[in-house]
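Quick note —
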Amino acid sequence: MHFRRLLLVLTLVGLSGCGSVSDAWMTGWTASEANDRIMLVRSEPMSFGFHRLTRQARLYPDLSLFMSAHGLPGFIAEMESRGRHFLILYYLDTREAFACRTRGAASREIEFAGPYPITSREFKTLEGFRRQADSARKRD
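Predicted structure written out below.
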């Protein structure tokens, strides 16, 4: 149940992470600002979430292998606690989420848990973010 609470908190706290990479860099976002945020993952135009996910995949080879098998998630959430890095990968098409955590501060190994079902409320929230990003992109 702790994971479900974490998903909900990250969903509610991380609403501002859906801008593009250039927006993130222009507003001074760094890796520390990715902490405790939910970010849209889009390769074109490249979103901050896509940038963060590809960076994490370079750091953690098992994450790269995982994405080769499962594809890109629609959203990611990042957080750090006690020297461990956590990622949550949200796959809206299958309404599933996977949790990932590093084994330690200096480790390049990552553990995976899931899939966990995305609740209807979480799906509605994330889908709303995606629609909002799509309509903002069309206006530009």
